[in-house]
Amino acid sequence: MNDFDVLLTGPVLPVIREGLAARFPLHALFEAPDREAFLDTIAPKIRGLVGGHGAGRITADFMARFPNLSIVGNFGVGYDGVDAKWAGEHGITVTNTPDVLNDEVADLAIGLLIATIRRLPQADRYVRAGQWLKAPFPLSNTLRNKKMGILGLGRIGKAIAQRAEAFGLSLCYHGRRAQTDVPYPYHASLEAMAREVDILMVIAPGGAQTRGIVSRAVLEALGPQGTLINVARGTLVDEKAMIELLASGKLGAAGLDVFEDEPRVPEALFAMENVVLLPHIGSASVHTRNAMGQLVVDNLVSFAQGRGPLTPVAETPWRG
Question: Which of 74, 176, 201, 270 counts the most CB atoms within 10 A of its CB?
Fold first, then answer.
């Protein structure tokens, strides 16, 4: 595949770089001393781009620089960092890495939920600070007799639901449409669902369509006894409203793995005792990230060999 040059837009895992380098002429944009001169030189040769999860946004303007571009391999199931709509309109396939990370993210989501409800990080700090010598740690909230609403009942949402059922949680969900093959009640209104549940689990895709969907009104509906868990994208939540409501007690607690402008986390959250903060580690195990990386490679190899992509995104379906 010597005529199928691939460009890395940012640093990637060894499994991706080594896997691609063994099969394609490989270029690394982030290592070029003069980015523009480098792009001018290699642009006509590039057939594939690889990026995602910190490896650089892939915009329409950027893709337009490569006249022979045919595929974009996105590292991650979320591909809001790629202008997939533009790609589809210009005959460019975009792939992502679904399924291989479902269980890892679902495990993390439930772990974050338990940590937030039972205040595990706070209890850990309490012991380390020697406070247990002075008094028992305060009693926490519980998962007993609680109802959880899931925003986004896709692959990962279903894996979360399966785990949540094992903990005895009552479940319902909100999404673009009702699903006929799931046993949970559907809510056409997210605000109405938030009003009925104790926990709102956010696992919907990012992007323009879902930006700010967890609005001030939704958070107020969740209320002072409610818990927000976000393992999707920070852009789905009105972050300013969330902080105000957490500080005032009008929202009970939050467990957050993602933020609007990560890795820059609002400092107002740091001192709050009713939040648990994680650095976007939903799929961040060695096993799962390597599986995701291998799927990036496998997509490009399959495409370059004429067999089509393995996991094309909805905006760029493979038609052969």
Answer: 201
Beta bridge partners of 39: none
Domain count, the chain: 2
d(CA 113, CA 27): 41
Provide CB contacts within 8 A for 62, sequence distance 6+. 9
Q: Sort 14 into a burial class: Cβ within 10 Å, 0-12 / 13-18 / 19+.
A: exposed
Residue 300 lies in a domain: yes
Closest by CA position to 204, among listed 238, 169, 233: 233
| Tens digits of residue pLDDT in 235-277 | 999 999 999 999 999 999 999 999 999 999 999 999 999 999 9
Domain residues for 77?
5-100+287-304
Is the Cβ–Cβ distance between 303 and 93 less than 8 Å? yes
Name the E strands within the chain: 5-8, 26-28, 46-51, 71-74, 93-95, 147-151, 170-174, 199-202, 227-230, 253-256, 275-277
On whether both 194 and 88 belong to a single domain, the answer is no
Dump pLDDT digits (tens) for 22-76. 999 999 999 999 999 999 999 999 999 999 765 568 999 999 999 999 999 999 9
Place of tokens 């096993």: 287
- Residues tagged active-site: 233, 262, 280
